[in-house]
Amino acid sequence: MTVRDPSSAVKGHSSVHGSSPFVELSREDWARLSNEIEQPLDAADVARLRGTGDRLDLTEVAEVYLPLSRLLNLYVSGAEQLHRATSTFLREDVERTPFVIGVAGSVAVGKSTTARVLRELLRRWPGTPDVQLITTDGFLYPNAELERRGLMQRKGFPESYDRRRLLRFVSEVKSGAPDVTAPWYSHLTYDIVPEREVVVSRPDVLIVEGLNVLAPARLRSDGTQGLALSDFFDFSIYVDAPTDYIEKWYIERFMKLRSGAFSDPESYFHRYASLSDEEAAATAHDIWTRINEPNLRENVLPTRGRAKLVLSKDRDHGIRRMLLRKT
């Protein structure tokens, strides 16, 4: 177990670069932290939770996600103890509020799989049977609004989201509001569905997954700084990998989707279903270099150091290293 600078450690450097708030653990060291926990999932669960193109098997669940679920369970217990201490201090019964976890990372890096697996595992721990998951896709502006603002080619960039509504949503959940609604996003139509919504009802744990969930607060026009979404997080995770690996995974996923979701005539991307392998690879590379890579470099990757835990992936999509913030 060594302490390293988070940026160099994620890139695989082995030297120590001064003091760091992070501790780096190898997958082997991490797995030993909870080797007494029984595997609660089976092969069918893994197949259901795994995203298109992602690598996930029972070994990775046992060696990576079970220890993480144990760590999160300890954090939830600690938050509950702090809640009781606050209630004692105030001499009143203050109602427990949801424990909120943020999961960030690039397109195609596997953050959605991470969020789904954690939801499944945390539901198995005593004290957190109700774990709900929401993605920030529902807070994208509708396509018509993005077109009006000239942002359709910047979908996924920070300015393409209704950030005020997203911040209000998580604030209300964290305050203990009984029912909080969010817009419903369809990956088939690539747009908000006006007549549908997601309702979050006082969960034990809420997982918020999205590209920019760890972004810092914006500076207001008067020079003051507002709240960041991450101000409401009790724990945060960044799923990381070298950019060239992520581009490869993005293109591979695009190729697989041609015969999957893209083949549906109702799909926004149906026009790509009939592309040849060469055309599909070129199209995916173009989308990556114009939209996803710039967004990753400019907006997503700079938030990595704000996470409490960085899960670092290798070429095979497997998680190999963990950077855990010490405080």
If you had to describe this structure to a student in words, what would you say it looks like?
There is one protein chain. With 327 residues, the chain is an alpha/beta fold. The chain has one domain: P-loop containing nucleotide triphosphate hydrolases (Rossmann fold, 3-Layer(aba) Sandwich), CATH 3.40.50.300. It is built from nine helices and ten strands. The strands form two sheets. It has an eight-stranded mixed β-sheet with strand order 1-2-10-9-8-3-7-4. Helix 4 packs across helix 5 and helix 8 crosses helix 9. The longest helix is centred in the N-terminal third of the chain and has 33 residues. It is globular and about 65 Å long. The N terminus is likely disordered.
Tell me, what is the CATH class?
A: Alpha Beta
Average pLDDT taken over every residue: 90
The rough form would be described as: globular
CATH topology: Rossmann fold
CATH architecture: 3-Layer(aba) Sandwich
Q: Biggest β-sheet, characterized? A: 8 strands, mixed
Beta percentage is 15-25%
Residue share in helix? 25-40%
State the gist of this model.
With 327 residues, the chain is an alpha/beta fold. The protein has helices at residues 6-10, 27-31, 43-49, 58-90, 111-122, 143-149, 163-174, 243-257, 277-300; strands at 2-3, 22-26, 99-105, 131-135, 180-186, 191-200, 205-209, 235-240, 309-313, 319-325.
Write the layout of secondary structure elements.
Elements: E1 2-3, H1 6-10, E2 22-26, H2 27-31, H3 43-49, H4 58-90, E3 99-105, H5 111-122, E4 131-135, H6 143-149, H7 163-174, E5 180-186, E6 191-200, E7 205-209, E8 235-240, H8 243-257, H9 277-300, E9 309-313, E10 319-325
Parallel strand pairs: 3-7, 3-8, 4-7, 8-9
Antiparallel strand pairs: 1-2, 2-10, 5-6, 9-10
Helix pairs in contact: 4-5, 8-9
